[in-house]
Amino acid sequence: MVIRSQENLVGAWAFLIGVVLAVIVGLLASPILGPLILGILAIGGLVVGYFVAEKDVQTFLLASVSLVIVSYTGISGLVLGANIGFSIGKILSSVLQTLLALFVPATIVVALKTVFSIAKS
């Protein structure tokens, strides 16, 4: 029997639900996403960022900054690049846009929490 830590259960579920929701919305949404959907994802990102455990801050920041940079670069490359075929570029761009809407606020919250933590000590 595996004993699991309960300290970051809310953050883990918020992260999992946020990523799944972002991918589903990105796959189903039109190329121009509604501001309401992106707003909900941004609020979800704030929740995810708030519940990141202090021991996971470095890992989360490294992964989320990498994801934000790669997503933004992917969106820029797909918009400027050649057609991939039957709207895969538009679908992928939409998924990357929703992931950005989720991870940018989460990254900002975790980075600010880290800065304030450093300033306290």
Q: What report would you give on this structure?
A:
The chain is mostly helical and 121 residues long. It has one domain (9-120). The chain contains four helices and no strands. The radius of gyration is 16 Å and the shape is globular. The chain starts with 8 loop residues before the first helix and ends with a helix. The mean pLDDT is 81.
Annotate the secondary structure layout:
Blueprint: H1 9-28, H2 35-50, H3 57-80, H4 88-120
Helix pairs in contact: 1-2, 1-4, 2-4, 3-4
Determine the strand fraction and express it as a percent band. Answer: under 5%
What is the helical fraction, as a range of percent?
over 70%
Strand-and-helix sequence, N→C? HHHH
Strand count? 0
Provide the residue-averaged pLDDT.
81
- End-to-end distance: 39 Å
The unreliable regions are none
Rg from alpha-carbon coordinates? 16 Å
The major β-sheet equals:
none
Number of helices: 4
Shape by Cα distribution: globular
Class computed from helices, strands and strand pairing: mainly alpha
Number of domains: 1
List keywords for this structure.
single chain, 121 residues, mainly alpha
Brief digest:
With 121 residues, the chain is mainly α. Helices cover 77% and strands 0% of the residues.
